[in-house]
Design brief:
- Helix content is about 50%, strand content about 15%.
- By secondary structure, the chain is an alpha/beta fold.
- It has a single domain (about 1-134), classed as Rossmann fold (3-Layer(aba) Sandwich), CATH 3.40.50.1380.
- Strands 3-2-1-4-5 form a 5-stranded parallel beta sheet, sandwiched between helices.
- The longest helix is centred in the last third of the chain and has 12 residues, at about 115-125.
- Mean pLDDT is about 90; it is low at about 85-90.
Length: about 130
């Protein structure tokens, strides 16, 4: 499976703990992430990550393009939900909103918190998403 990762700076410690905990599952898959997120994954768990541009310099757009070309099977994006954001703004204009809509449009599972990321990774480990590769 091809798994995309994004994280905000305030969630990098959570991402590091996550990839350490699920290293055995993740090492059998292709990982993709913008530069800072990729570095976090490599440093924490020593996993190989295909690195994109920094998120604010086009990395998120590269992930979105991968989804649109059917080159990504799952997405994990740890963000800070405490930020004041109106849903209409988030869903329509922000990079997160575009990523969210693109994942929905192309049936790409998107985990945005630790609980949903664990469910997604365990589903991948159990072969529950193998239908995406057939």
């Amino acid at each position: 499976m091809r798994i995309g990762f994004m994280t905000e700076q305030s969630r990098r410690e959570m991402l590091a703990s996550f990839v350490i905990a699920y290293k055995m599952v993740l090492q059998g898959h292709e990982l993709y992430a913008p530069e800072a997120t990729a570095r976090c994954i490599r440093e924490a768990a020593g996993l190989k990550v295909n690195c994109f541009l920094p998120g604010n310099m086009g990395g998120i757009n590269q992930l979105i393009s991968q989804i649109e070309r059917n080159e990504l099977d799952a997405m994990i994006y740890f963000y800070s939900p405490g930020k004041e954001m109106q849903f209409d703004f988030v869903a329509n204009t922000s990079q997160f909103g575009v990523l969210l809509r693109t994942c929905d449009e192309y049936c790409i599972p998107l985990a945005t918190n630790l609980g949903s990321a664990e469910v997604l990774i365990m589903g991948i480990a159990n072969g529950d998403l193998d239908w995406k590769n057939s």
